[in-house]
Design brief:
Keywords: Membrane, Transmembrane, Transmembrane helix. This protein is an all-alpha fold. The chain contains six helices and no strands. It is elongated and about 50 Å long.
């Protein structure tokens, strides 16, 4: 993600100078999407901090987080595909590919989020830990 930031900063500078270099944005989107994909290789049995632990332990917050991740992934992929289909220039087509890769990275984050939600949610884990609350056993 640090390398993606290295490409994003020159894009913001070129944008501030009113001569945007869209190539930098394309590289930033591509690298950020790949970095998100690699970040999903983490151990989903552990949370990184107390904030994420609160989200994944709560059934309501966990569902909302998964819904947000799903909407982001679908939104980026759909926007990228639409941009690619209706692009009239090579620059727009390249940016569209970067947006699609970013969406694919969010699909990986969604997969990790689903696993973390299943591993950490309190309402499911209480039932599994206490055999008296299990149905049919």
């Amino acid at each position: 993600m640090l390398v993606a930031t290295g490409y994003y900063i020159p894009f913001v500078i070129s944008l501030a100078q009113r001569h945007p270099d869209w190539g930098y944005l394309n590289y930033a989107l591509l690298l950020f999407g790949v970095a998100l994909s690699f970040s999903t290789l983490q151990d989903t049995a552990k949370t990184q901090n107390k904030f994420s632990k609160k989200i994944w332990e709560s059934p309501e917050k966990g569902r909302m987080a998964l819904l947000l991740l799903a909407m982001l992934a679908f939104g980026f992929i759909a926007c990228g595909l639409l941009m690619h289909c209706f692009s009239s220039s090579e620059v727009t087509s390249n940016i569209a590919v970067g947006v699609i890769v970013l969406g694919i990275g969010f699909v990986g984050v969604l997969k990790s989020g689903i696993e973390m939600f299943e591993n950490h949610r309190k309402d499911k884990n209480i039932t599994q830990d206490n055999p008296e609350h299990q149905d049919g056993l």
